[in-house]
Each structure stands twice: as structure tokens, then as C-alpha cells.
From TrEMBL:
Protein species of origin: Thiomonas delicata (Thiomonas cuprina)
GO cellular component: cytoplasm
Protein name: ATP phosphoribosyltransferase
UniProt keyword Cytoplasm present: yes
Subunit structure: Heteromultimer composed of HisG and HisZ subunits.
HAMAP family with a match to the protein in the record: HisG_Short
Class of enzymatic activity (EC top level): transferase
Length: 219
């Protein structure tokens, strides 16, 4: 049995068409079931639904043989899990967005940086944010949040946020503006190294199928 770890939402929705092109259909829609293990049309493959930030943990420790995780989540996990134990063979090119610094409209970020002001920044991505600001020589106090980062500057919890921006709709709706892109993000296929060695015959065709399917995605 092979186990694929996915998270509900964008990762699941964008992975589904790739799986379909590789001949795999998932038996149930995660939005209409509370089940966490979903069978597929293949008797030897199941999907498990986990929190996006837990996908690398499941794959790293062999709870899942492979999974799909955003580069943001992967890089952040590297800081705590270490990069060992997982292959990252394919940039699937899905769930594209960018990690950016955003501030309330009217906050002069460039001026604050020039002045050497100490900024309070709310984010779920403390490791990536710390690296980014350290490389720029900007002094920051990081406030770790687990979601709804956009709220923090609105109620005076932070001067700025570091968060994912896709359409920009969430920032606009909350009166924030993107002031500094940090990196482009897309979802990656990750594979447990031991599983890839012991289950090569079953796993490699799936990895190859997903790679081929992702190559055909219009960018
Ligand atoms: C992400 C991110 C932003 C939003 C950006 O949240 O944290 O809030 O999407 O997308 P937009 O630019 O298209 O508005 P997501 O919906 O993935 O949920 P999360 O807060 O649980 O990460």
C-alpha cells in the first residue's frame, strides 16, 4: 500500500487534476466527508488528509510515502525537521503564489527600513522571515501566528506581516499592500527516501506520472 499525504484546499484541489492525468481518481471529496483516509481507484494507493504544515513531517517519518507541500511549508519545516530523509523530485508548478512583506496602506516601509527602525512583524513563517530580514539588515521582532496574519497590523499587533499572496484579494480587503516580495512559491512533490528505495517499483511510476502531468500544466 502506498500513502500520499495531501492537505485540504488549494493543494488538494490543484493536485487532483495531476492525479487524474496520471490515471488516479480519489474516491471522495474532502469537503464532503470527515474521513482522513480516502481510497483511490487503485487498490494500492490511498490519500491521507493532514494539515499543510504537517505534510513534510508525515513524509519525513514515513507516515506517508509521498506528499505535496508548498515550498513555503517545506523551507519552514527544514528549519525544524532538517532536510534529510526526503527527496524533492518535482516542482509541480501548482498552488503558485509568493511570500511577501505587507504593511497597512500609508505605512512607509522603505523609510522605516532606511531609518533602521525596529519593526514588529507577524507571521507564520518565522524562520523564512528571520532569514529575509537578517539578509537585509533590518531589525525585527517576530510575532508567531498560525493564521489570519492580515489582522495583526489592523489592530496594532504588528507593523507588517510576512504571508503568502496569490490574487492579492485578502490584502486589499484588509487595507494592506505588498511592499516586498521575498520568494516565488509553488507546490513540490516530496518522497520518503526509504520508501523510494523499498517500494521503487510502485512509487517510481507514480512520481514519473506526476512529473509528466505537471510538465503539461499551462503556466
Ligand atoms: C493564504 C494566505 C492569505 C491568502 C492569500 O491563506 O495566508 O491569507 O491565502 O491569497 P490571496 O492573495 O489570493 O487573497 P489560505 O487561504 O491558504 O489559508 P491559511 O491562512 O490557512 O494559510
Amino acid at each position: 500500500m502506498l500513502t500520499l499525504a495531501l492537505s485540504k484546499g488549494r493543494i488538494f484541489d490543484d493536485t487532483l487534476p495531476l492525479l487524474a492525468r496520471a490515471g488516479i481518481t480519489v474516491a471522495e471529496d474532502p469537503e464532503s466527508t470527515r474521513k482522513l483516509i480516502l481510497p483511490t481507484n487503485r487498490a494500492d494507493l490511498r490519500v491521507v488528509l493532514v494539515r499543510a504544515s504537517d505534510v513534510p513531517t508525515y513524509v519525513r517519518y514515513g507516515g506517508a510515502d509521498f506528499g505535496v507541500a508548498g515550498l513555503d511549508v517545506l523551507l519552514e519545516a527544514d528549519a525544524t525537521l532538517g532536510g534529510d530523509g526526503m527527496y524533492r523530485p518535482v516542482d509541480l508548478g501548482i498552488a503558485r503564489c509568493r511570500l511577501s512583506v505587507a504593511t497597512p496602506q500609508g505605512f512607509d516601509y522603505a523609510h522605516a527600513v532606511r531609518q533602521g527602525s525596529r519593526l514588529r512583524v507577524a507571521t507564520k513563517y518565522v524562520h523564512l522571515a528571520r532569514e529575509h530580514f537578517a539578509a537585509k539588515g533590518v531589525h525585527v521582532d517576530l510575532v508567531k501566528l498560525y493564521g489570519s496574519m492580515e489582522l495583526a497590523p489592523l489592530i496594532g499587533l504588528a507593523d507588517a506581516i510576512v504571508d503568502l499572496v496569490s490574487s492579492g484579494g485578502t490584502l486589499r480587503a484588509n487595507g494592506l499592500v505588498e511592499v516586498e516580495p521575498i520568494m516565488d512559491i509553488s507546490a513540490r512533490l516530496i518522497v520518503n527516501q526509504a520508501a523510494f528505495k523499498t517500494k521503487t517499483a510502485a512509487l517510481k511510476p507514480l512520481v514519473d506520472g506526476l512529473r509528466e502531468a505537471s510538465n503539461n500544466i499551462p503556466i
